[in-house]
Design goal:
With 338 residues, this protein is mostly helical. The protein has helices at 2-24, 32-41, 47-81, 93-106, 112-136, 146-169, 171-182, 190-209, 211-218, 221-226, 231-253, 259-271, 275-299, 308-329, 331-337.
Length: 338
Amino acid sequence: MRHRATGLWGMLALLPLTLALHLFFGTNLQDLPPRLYALFHLEARNYEEAVLLYQRVPRTLIAIYVGGVTATCGLVLQSLVRNPLASPTTLGVNAGAALFMVAGVLVFNVSTALQGVAALAGALAGFLASLAMARAAGRKNDPRGLSLILSGALVAMFCTGLTNALLLSDPARRSDLLSWVIGTINHAYFDRLLLFWWVGVIALVVLLGLARPLTLILFGAEKAASTGVNVPFVSHVAILAAVLGAGSAVAICGPIGFVGLVVPHIVRPLVGNNLVVALPAAVLAGAIVCLLADLVAREALYPFTLSTGLVTDLVGGVVFVVIVKRFYLSPGARQEAA
């Protein structure tokens, strides 16, 4: 228990340090006091302070939101699907949200608010399509949930192909959406954060409220039911909250890949499998990872800026290979599967 508390407190201490690094990286010590004054008084007196207030602060808030929500939703999906590869990326959630939003913009020319609604609907449709395909393939005979992961990968490829086709069909407007489709934390998307933040907050509140029954479900549905947990209700509500929460993150800045896959594997060794502790830890760790990824995207090739999704994809791809090797290709994993 002390080990779990130490991990949680460690992440809680690391978040403000990462936050300060993201906000003030490259600032000279003598310039720090006036920057702090501008930050606390929300008053820009020169160009550098304007950059801090109107570019870095919005990027920071978006990174915290997207990282925290996506990581927490990924942890819940992995716990309920019982597969270490489950995440909004691998279950068709992100790709479905991106497809519906791009279709809403290019086909129906909807407003920004309705674009968010389209992204939420697409996230839910992508997951349901993956689930339907997995059930058709015999998911009930697959306790490790591998059929759902493979179905999610197929749905994601299909949705990504349709998204690219829509973008190619309208070259005049393609450039407006290309950065978003890749997944980019940008101060220009701050208005989307102001519109959709409440969706992720409600999702987090619901998931944190269900942390104890979800933990009991991890020990087995029958054991959880014997303690009074309504297993189907809790599972369905948690999945719905996770899918919509992840969809809200996509609605803001596009699909930031692999955060929902990688961060849960960082959190569990530090705080354990008890979701009462692991879910708050995932919020903190997801925010930290996304802040660092955006810092790398912003500063690695300065004055040019990379897409944050590109950075997370590069790192997440390596981690994805490690996870597959550990859980599916190691001798112990093969013996368990047999």
